[in-house]
């Protein structure tokens, strides 16, 4: 928003622009992040020797390219683990801890490398990126659904004033603590149960990759047993992204006895990915409908109509409620016939309401049903509104009213004045379009 250019600022202010920015940022991190991460972790190139030669030879055999093999000083290098990061070969790093090289045999190191290479060859890193990208529609949909549900709850069970600041749906959307709690809940459920499910199954798929690269999976079993013994980790303790060591060993043993279990795991991952993608497409479709489609408009319209009807019963002398009712019929329902009496009643109670004057003027100037248009009445109302409050949107209505009544130069001058009062971050496209239309009329 600090950029001195209007177009990027306008794009980045839109939901689509923000989503695009997040996507580009995420892709850049995924592609080039490993370079920064390995430096931040204090990784160093694995020095020349038998261990490096062995890993290099195994990677060549598996036809896996990488930028470098690094020693990973995790917990001072005492932890027995390995890893791989990087979507493309130029920025892909294979990580091994000093303890792993110290306590495992060469055959066991080969088995661990087969596991890490499995992540690369099964495209798990690419899928992880997909999971982060699809987090966006999940969060957006959660906010939308929770907002609708919360607003409906307020309508039916709690006192609700749609005009009071900090109440109702507006309060829900602007409450930092509630928004933070919802965001944390969405993140927890998504990563713990969705992302975690796929991580566990991807790890299992990487485990059975040893059957493709090694003649025997026994070295992987013995390496897992050593990791449990030396690190002091319970073999029966799983976590959110890994099956327990015992479960991993037992599954490898099942595959030894019956190789059909290998293909079952691959089918499970493929089926799960298909279901996941179908769910994500459904999420995007529901979000689209809730926010931009007919279903969302119907829910919003029903909610607003219910609130206004109830509030008018309690406060029949409130002119703002009748103005809101006019806005509802005109803007949301496109029903000028019902909007006009509501605006007129609001003005009867509050003749100096600039917003009611402006909105009724705009209706008389632009109503899609031309039978309700009244340019003379629109100009009279707009002039009065501009005298009370010469804000940009009211001057814009006045300019349109001048134009409809044939005062083209006055329309042009008023529209230019409206644009002078616009803030830098406000959308100017509609004002510019009207200004161009007025200029074209004068030129002719």
Envelope shape: elongated
Record field, number of beta strands: 4
Share of residues in strands: under 5%
Poorly predicted runs are 160-169
N- to C-terminal distance: 39 Å
**H/E element string?**
HHEHEEEHHHHHHHHHHHHHHHHHH
Mean pLDDT: 87
Task: Report the helical percentage.
Answer: over 70%
Query: Structural class, from secondary structure content?
Result: mainly alpha
Question: Could you describe the largest sheet, including whether it forms a barrel?
Answer: 4 strands, mixed
Rg estimate, integer Å: 32 Å
Q: What strand line-up does the widest sheet have? A: 1-2-4-3
* Number of DSSP helical runs: 21
Task: Walk me through what this model shows.
This protein is mostly helical. Helix content is 72%, strand content 3%. The chain is built from 21 helices and four strands. Helix 15 packs parallel to helix 17. About 2% of the residues have low confidence.
């Amino acid at each position: 928003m600090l950029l001195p250019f209007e177009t990027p600022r306008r794009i980045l202010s839109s939901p689509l622009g923000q989503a695009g920015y997040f996507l580009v940022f995420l892709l850049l991190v995924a592609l080039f992040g490993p370079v920064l991460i390995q430096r931040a972790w204090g990784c160093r190139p694995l020095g020349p020797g038998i261990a490096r030669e062995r890993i290099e030879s195994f990677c060549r055999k598996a036809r896996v390219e990488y930028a470098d093999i690094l020693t990973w000083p995790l917990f001072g290098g005492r932890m027995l683990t390995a890893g791989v990061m990087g979507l493309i070969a130029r920025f892909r790093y294979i990580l091994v801890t000093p303890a792993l090289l110290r306590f495992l045999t060469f055959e066991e190191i080969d088995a661990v490398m087969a596991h890490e290479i499995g992540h690369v060859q099964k495209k798990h890193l690419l899928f992880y990126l997909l999971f982060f990208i699809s987090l966006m529609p999940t969060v957006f949909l959660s906010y939308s659904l929770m907002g609708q549900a919360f607003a409906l709850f307020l309508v039916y069970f709690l006192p609700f004033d749609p005009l009071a600041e900090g109440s109702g749906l507006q309060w829900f959307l602007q409450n930092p603590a509630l928004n933070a709690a919802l965001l944390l809940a969405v993140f927890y459920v998504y990563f713990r149960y969705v992302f975690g499910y796929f991580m566990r199954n991807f790890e299992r798929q990487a485990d059975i990759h040893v059957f493709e690269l090694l003649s025997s999976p026994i070295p992987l079993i013995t390496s897992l047993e050593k990791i449990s013994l030396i690190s002091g980790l319970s073999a029966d303790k799983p976590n959110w992204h890994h099956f327990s060591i015992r479960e991993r060993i037992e599954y490898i043993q099942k595959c030894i006895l019956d190789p059909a279990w290998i293909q079952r795991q691959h089918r499970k991952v493929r089926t799960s990915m298909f279901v996941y993608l179908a769910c994500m497409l459904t999420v995007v479709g529901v979000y689209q409908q809730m926010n931009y489609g007919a279903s969302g408009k119907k829910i919003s319209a029903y909610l607003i109509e219910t609130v206004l009807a109830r509030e008018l019963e309690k406060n029949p002398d409130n002119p703002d409620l009748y103005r809101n009712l006019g806005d509802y019929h005109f803007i949301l329902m496109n029903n000028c016939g019902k909007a006009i009496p509501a605006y007129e009643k609001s003005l009867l109670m509050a003749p100096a309401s600039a917003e009611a004057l402006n909105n009724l003027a705009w209706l008389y100037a632009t109503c899609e049903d031309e039978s309700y248009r009244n340019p003379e009445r629109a100009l009279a109302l707009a002039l009065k509104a501009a005298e009370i409050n010469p804000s940009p949107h009211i001057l814009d209505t006045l300019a349109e009213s001048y134009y409809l009544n044939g005062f083209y130069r006055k329309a042009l001058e008023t529209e230019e004045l409206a644009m002078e009062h616009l803030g830098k971050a406000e959308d100017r496209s509609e004002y510019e379009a009207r200004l161009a239309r007025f200029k074209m009329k004068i030129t002719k």
